[in-house]
Write a structure and sequence with these properties.
The chain has 26 helices and 16 strands.
């Protein structure tokens, strides 16, 4: 008999673990809240259907499993709280945890008392069990829906902090209902639980941080040590005051997360995985313990009560808690919709039901059926429809636009400059090379020295703003590793990396889109750019086709708010950055329509004609101001370089790429102070923001002016295409 019972216990635990995890995986593939299939799966595996899980065989072990699982879940919830969130919406959260709790508790108790034939103390106990929303359902929902930051903070803080409050009130009500001989005795126990929970939690949290900071705990054992410490704190608190461990683990988790040890992100990841497993096991065990006939007994009255909780009590809670706040009506309506109950409500209801059943109470079945009905309905409806509600109410968070570029070399800085100017997204550069970081900082970039694979070391303000990763180190394996690390936080279509190997030679499961594989390694590109052996061309995408020459590689483009790397729609309006290995930059800024033949002896006429032609393609050029600048310069400081070549030039603040017009004027123009007539004019306009490129173009024109044979060939060649070909030979 003992052997059979031992086997039944083992099979119950093993099947609940395997079944729970399997159902969680299935829920993720189906993109539905995990609790829904867990509840259904637990009922199917339990005595009501297949009978392969028997929670009765666990005896007191079930209570132990529930307690330790809840401790693990709530510690992880406290660990993920962000202190900046309470500063932004602290008033709303404080009222939710006080006035809001009272509205939910007493409002539910009021309707329960009048709709069901129960005592006031039982109504108060039932109302206390659904105070909590809980991080077990709120966190996955928020990760999926992605609402505005203020709503995220409100719901997350409410979900974590309301758990111990709800549990303490539930225990208080349970003692009033079942075991108390004096009305003051439960209140005394309540105060002791709060005191012990806060004191032991703070001591344990800060103590754990101190041990981690001193490196007394090996890095490889930090995760399991923190887990053991959380369970120890839970147990030691319960030893002093029964049920005080709930608050202890929340406070310990929050204090450890607030101090932010270096190992924090690793610990959070480990704890989130444990929490997911704990939720899976708990819900399978708890739902396997349910009896379906108890739900049917709730009847229509039960449906009415659930509707009142969702559509009257929760909105009233939000209205009271957000009164006088800066939240908009849309945001308040979304908060009114979101209040799914989770594993803590179910756990406490099951524990109380077990104890009441043993004492022969007839209300145990009602308590459990009522709580799990609220859990099932709120999780199902709010989990499935929250995304649609958020879209209708327009409270979804805007996508993260920030870029983290790994590598602070010259090439990375040029790419970052294009992204910031053309796309409007902030770029942060990270590099282990301190010299490269300092150079980037001198150029005005936000740059940090560090390791991009150690995500836990990235400052929070940078981490939370990062929506794209571009790994530009020379080590393709490192670039791949960086993308793999960040894939836990960003979708794979926002991860980019340089590699010298094509996709088919890479691991098919490797994270990150390969870009610019036809280019040499990034440090070589940086060297070529610095030494003017290559150039980066910023241009309009619909004009870029004429600039795609042998050796030209499209790098990045911004089109209709969408950022593309390597794969552009050339017919769509936007801006692009091109890479070109060359000896002369000039050909890329001479358009076919910018080659003009005319005969005049007036520099004003020549400049007017050239500018009119330039404005046809670049209407953003301010004609009058530019003409006056060129005219004044040519009259006071003629730009004759020699061999009949002049280069009238000016900066233009409205241009984003240089413009160069070639005017062939055989008649020649004698400029003020010159004895040699100018016959070949390079009218050059450059963006004011890029003086370096302006000087490079003037240097290219100076090379042409020194080559009499080339000048003669430029005059003898009628075709515009051939003129540009000659410029490429410089």
């Amino acid at each position: 008999m003992d052997m059979e019972l031992s086997y039944l216990r083992l099979s119950t635990i093993v099947l609940s673990i395997f079944g729970g995890v399997l159902l969680s995986v299935l829920a993720r593939h189906m993109r539905i809240p995990a609790i829904a299939p867990l509840l259904v799966g637990g009922v199917l595996l339990g005595p009501e259907v297949f009978g392969v899980i028997d929670t009765g065989s666990l005896g007191e072990g079930l209570r132990l499993i529930i307690s330790l699982s809840v401790a693990t879940i709530l510690f992880e919830g406290g660990l993920t709280l962000e202190f900046k969130g309470i500063k932004k919406v602290g008033g709303v959260i404080l009222r939710m945890l006080t006035l809001g709790v009272l509205v939910t508790w007493l409002g539910t108790a009021f309707f329960t008392y009048y709709l069901f034939d129960v005592s006031i103390s039982m109504a108060l106990l039932a109302g206390s069990l659904i105070i909590v929303t809980g991080p077990t359902v709120i966190t996955p929902l928020l990760n999926r829906v992605k609402v505005k930051e203020n709503l995220h903070h409100i719901l997350h803080w409410e979900g974590v902090l309301i758990d111990p409050i709800g549990v303490f009130i539930a225990i208080l009500c349970f003692e009033w209902y079942s075991v108390s001989s004096s009305p003051l005795e439960p209140l005394t126990h309540f105060g002791l639980r709060v005191l012990v929970g806060v004191v032991v939690g703070l001591m344990g949290g800060f103590g754990t941080y101190w041990l981690l900071k001193k490196d007394w705990i090996p890095e490889q054992q930090a995760n399991i040590f923190v887990l053991a410490m959380a369970l120890f704190l839970f147990g030691i608190s319960d030893f002093f005051v029964h049920e005080s461990g709930i608050l202890t683990v929340v406070v310990a988790g929050f204090s450890l997360g607030w101090k932010k040890p270096m190992q924090l992100r690793h610990i959070q990841k480990f704890k989130s995985e444990l929490t997911e497993m704990a939720i899976a096991i708990l819900f399978v065990l708890l739902s396997a313990n349910l009896q379906l006939e108890n739900f049917l007994k709730l009847g229509v009255v039960g449906v009415i009560l659930i509707a009142l909780v969702m559509f009257v009590i929760r909105p009233l809670n939000v209205a009271v808690s957000t009164f006088g706040s800066t939240l908009s009506l849309r945001e308040k309506l979304f908060l009114s919709w979101i209040a799914p109950r989770g594993v803590v409500s179910g756990s406490m209801a099951s524990l109380f039901a077990i104890q009441l059943s043993r004492s022969g109470s007839s209300t145990a079945a009602f308590l459990e059926a009522f709580t799990f009905s609220i859990i099932g309905i709120t999780v199902l409806f709010q989990g499935l429809f929250s995304g649609g509600v958020a879209r209708v109410l327009k409270v979804k968070a805007a996508p993260k636009q920030g870029w983290l570029i790994v590598g602070a070399h010259y090439f990375s800085r040029k790419v970052a400059k294009f992204i910031q100017l053309s796309i409007g997204s902030k770029c942060v550069l990270i590099d282990s090379n301190d010299d490269a970081v300092r150079e980037a900082q001198k150029e005005g970039f936000t740059a940090i020295q560090g390791n991009a694979t150690a995500i836990e070391t990235i400052p929070d303000d940078i981490f939370t703003a990062t929506g794209n990763i571009l790994a530009l180190t020379d080590n393709r394996a490192l670039n791949q590793l960086i993308c793999e690390k960040w894939s836990e936080h960003l979708s794979r279509d926002h991860l980019y990396r340089w590699s010298s190997k094509p996709d088919e030679e890479e691991n098919s499961r490797a994270m990150g889109t390969i870009v610019w594989q036809n280019l040499p390694n990034p440090s070589r590109i940086a060297y070529d750019l610095r030494n003017k052996e290559a150039t980066l061309i910023r241009t309009k995408t619909d004009r870029a086709v004429s600039k795609i020459l042998p050796g030209t590689v499209p790098l990045i483009a911004q089109q209709n708010g969408f950022t593309a790397l390597d794969n552009f729609n050339w017919n769509s309006e936007g801006e692009a950055l091109l890479y070109q290995q060359l000896s002369s930059n000039l050909p890329f800024y001479v358009h076919l329509d910018h080659i003009i033949d005319m005969k005049t002896d007036s520099i004003d006429t020549l400049l007017e004609t050239a500018l009119e032609q330039a404005c046809k393609i670049h209407p953003e050029i301010p004609y009058e101001d530019t003409f006056n600048t060129l005219q004044t310069r040519e009259k006071n400081f003629p730009t004759l370089l020699g061999n009949g070549v002049s280069v009238p030039h000016a900066h233009c603040t409205t241009l984003k790429e240089p413009v160069c017009l070639i005017v062939r004027n055989p008649q020649g123009i004698i400029m003020n102070g010159d004895h040699e007539p100018s016959r070949l004019f390079f009218v050059t306009l450059s963006p004011a923001a890029d003086p370096e490129l302006h000087l490079i173009l003037l240097a290219d024109i100076a090379k042409i002016a020194s080559d009499e044979e080339l000048i003669a060939r430029l005059f003898k060649t009628p075709e515009a295409e051939r003129v540009i070909d000659l410029l490429r030979e410089v």
